[in-house]
Amino acid sequence: MALSPYRSSVPAGSLRSSTVVRLERPLSMGSATKQAAAAAAAVVTPPSRSKSTSSMSPQARRSSSAARSGKDDSGVSGRVRVAVRLRPRNSDELIADADFGDYVELMPELKRLKLRKNNWDSETFQFDEVLTETASQKRVYEVVAKPVVESVLEGYNGTVMAYGQTGTGKTFTLGRLGEEDTADRGIMVRAMEDILADTSADQDAVTVSYLQLYMETVQDLLAPEKDNISIVEDPKTGDVSLPGVTLCEVRDQRSFLELLQIGEANRFAANTKLNTESSRSHAILLVNVKKTVKAKQDRELVVLNENVSNIQLSKGHRIPTIRRSKLLIVDLAGSERVDKSGSEGHTLEEAKYINLSLTALGKCINALAENSPHVPIRDSKLTRLLRDSFGGTARTSLIITIGPSPQHRGETTSTILFGQRAMKVENMVKLREEFDYKSLCRKLETDLDRLVAENERQSQAVFDAEEEMEAKIQEAQRSVTEAEKKLATTLEEMAAERFRFQKEHAETVHKLEQERSLREKLEKELKENTQTLHVQKEKQMQSERARHQKELDDRKQRHQQEVMELTKRLEVERSQRDVLERKLQEVEHLVKQKGKSELGGQEQILLLTSQCKEQSHMREKAEKELQDLRSKTALTTKELKEENANLRDDVKSLSHDLEEQLKHKKTLEHEVKTLKQQLLQLSFEADETRKSLDREPARTSIGSDSPLMNSHKPIHMRESLNGQRATIAKLFEQVGLQKILSLLDSEDMDVRVHAVKVVANLAAEEANQEKIVEAGGLESLLALLQSSEDETIRRVAAGAVANLAMNETNQELIMVQGGIRLLARTANEAEDPQTLRMVAGAIANLCGNDKLQGKLREEGGIKALLGMVRSRHPDVLAQIARGLANFAKCESRGVAQGHRKERSLLIDDGALPWIVSNASSEASPIRRHIELALCHLAQHEVNAKDLVAAGALWELVRISKECSREDIRSLAKRTLGASPVFQSELRKMHLAHD
Ligand code: ADP
Ligand code: MG
């Protein structure tokens, strides 16, 4: 009894092809499985092989040799599985075979089939599956085809083929579409269902070709015009291909059914055209399955890489694996033709071709089953097409169909025997797996391109970044350099600034110090001045009050006296009236006593009465006067009282004013300028005081050009003065000349006085004179001289002008600005000898200018000079004499130079008498100037007669003899000798000069 090789490991009816395939997989197959397979091969011994069980089949030999060589290339032994299916009786058979017993007996549980030869003889066959007439289409698929389909999906080629007499149900088993009844669906439909369920439309591909083989011609059932498709075998791999055949990709079951229908329709049309039947042709459905294996285990890769050792794979790239497998479903032509072709009226040729393929298939299977060294594969197109299915690498299932009728006993038996032989065919199933180098290459190229592009981008980015960085660094360096430069400059500037600030600070501190001390001093002085002023005002007010009081008292007294006098007069009048009244009474009495009145008496009475009336009238008048006087007195007293009160108010308001002024003064303290001026003032006053102390010794000097000059003062005095002037000069620098000059116009008299003193003091220094004149000081001084009522101002201003007049340019300016007229006016008006001394000094200076002589005289300069002799003050006289001497000297110079011919202007203006009378003055400065003047006058012969007439000759003679100055003495002598007039006069007096 032969046993299925699977029975030992798989329960009947639930064979899982995956289990089978797993066992056969080269990588997972252990040695135990191999042994089991080998054992199975030994156990299953079909009857035809019983005689040669000891010898090894070619497959077994191949298999063992492959195992020995250790190569997986040859695959795993896989015998062709064969199932038998019995068709149920059709209606005809039910009738025809009613008298016959069962010819075929099935023992499906034993997978055995018994063929009853006759009543006493039967033959039993072992199959892989025995499917009874009741077996469902589903069960048939699962038992026969499903393991092959699963195997195909795992990468192995597979073949499902039906073999049997026409009408036994081959097409029913394979090609039923099951459109009416789903349960009727055949193997093709069910196989495609499983394939589509196990593949993905994205990554995998399922294509279908549908062919018909008839009379050794392959026709494309999906494109019937292709009716001669060639079969090409790869000489290396032995793989069969059909160039030009239609490959339809199947995406769903519906499209597949459509394809099958198209194929069937085309098959039917083709058979009609050829006048044949479908049972005479072979139908072949070719399903190509391409599956991508997703994640290949590293372990597997390593093993695979042993074969592709040259390929270096990066870690991230696993080789994609694809599995290309084929499923062939073959519906063979009816097997009865093999034997009956000739007997059914076919042409010999036709019969030959019709049977050729099936005959060849039988021969090949026989050869394979018997391990024959020659397998005539190339004898027919069918065997060429099925090259891999029998004796190849495919997993093959064969279903043989038989009918139940004993009428077809022969066909049934031959079919069963074919199946028995096929069961002996061993295939070497082989995984159709290959590395998808193309897709790997594409992927790697894509990756490479992407990486190259990315690299390029990054390189560019790096380059850009570097450039940017470089630019930034340069920019930063530039900035740093600039910043450093700026810093250095700033530091330098700051240092300079700091130095300047320090300097300024020191200067400011110094100035402040000075100002503070100055202010303190001024405050002190102000205080003193205020006190003095206060005291003076107080005194003034007291004296005023006293005067008013006295006046009031006087008036009171006077009024009282008047009242007393009037009272006295009233008393007298009253007594007179009383006397008169008494007289009147006496008279009246007398009249009464004597009786009759006498005419004379009456007249006397009338007279007395009129006298009395008159007296009474007078008395009334006197009383009225007295009354008036009294009321007047009262009124006056009242008035006086009121006046007194008014005076008190005045005093009060004056005090108030005084206080206000004091306040005002205090508020003016900040006017440092004024205070500074006062300070200057005081300095000047001090100077003046000192000078006045010095005046006595200075007065004795002769020939001094300036009344204010100190050139002849004792040295110690000069030093002291110079020191003070230096102080003033310093202040002058600080305060500024312009300011000092502006103070000459000040409202404040004191300020004006001080200012003019300062200017005069400054003008004493030759260095300052030009500056003062430039700044308009001369005009201001002359203006003061003209307008000021104040004696001091005029004196000092004149002194200043005198000082300025020492300079020749200034002399002209003074003249131009009408200085002479002003000086002359001052000379005429002033009484103060010091003022006159200054004026005389100024004019004297002007007298020394050759160019100005005429104008000086015209504007009354000489007359003014001579007018001042009224002062009799020796200082004034000395200046007058100096002026006359200067004038005379200029004139004599003019004569000597030849542009002067006329008599001396001095003589014209009547200077001679005074000159002569003072020629022998006690005061030496006067005397010496006059002596000089006389000498110069005498130089010009035109003057000689006048000189003689004025008595100057005698003075000249005296000078020539007595003058203490040698030069003047000799000049006088020379002059006397040279003048003819003098000579003749002297001769007249017998005093001819020798
Ligand atoms: P074949 O292709 O082998 O010539 P068919 O498949 O055409 O045979 O079958 C012949 C007839 O038998 C058909 O009418 C079919 O329906 C019927 N037939 C075949 N097998 C079965 C079965 N197992 N059960 C019922 N009817 C069957
Ligand atoms: Mg058929």
TrEMBL record:
> Domain Kinesin motor, which positions?
79-425
Q: Which InterPro entries match?
A: ARM-like, ARM-type_fold, Armadillo, KIF11-like, Kinesin_motor_CS, Kinesin_motor_dom, Kinesin_motor_dom_sf, P-loop_NTPase
Q: Which domain of life is it from?
A: Eukaryota
**Annotated region Disordered: where?**
1-75, 528-558, 690-712
Q: What is this protein called?
A: Kinesin-like protein
The answer to whether keyword Chloroplast applies is yes
Q: Which family does it belong to?
A: Belongs to the TRAFAC class myosin-kinesin ATPase superfamily. Kinesin family. Ungrouped subfamily.
Record keywords: ATP-binding, Chloroplast, Coiled coil, Cytoplasm, Cytoskeleton, Microtubule, Motor protein, Nucleotide-binding, Plastid, Repeat
> Which amino acid positions bind ATP, per UniProt?
164-171
Stretches with biased composition (Basic and acidic residues):
535-558
Pfam families listed in its UniProt record: Arm, Kinesin
Q: Which organism is it from?
A: Adiantum capillus-veneris
Gene Ontology molecular functions: ATP binding; microtubule binding; plus-end-directed microtubule motor activity
BP terms from Gene Ontology: microtubule-based movement; mitotic spindle assembly; spindle elongation
Location in the cell reads:
Cytoplasm, Cytoskeleton
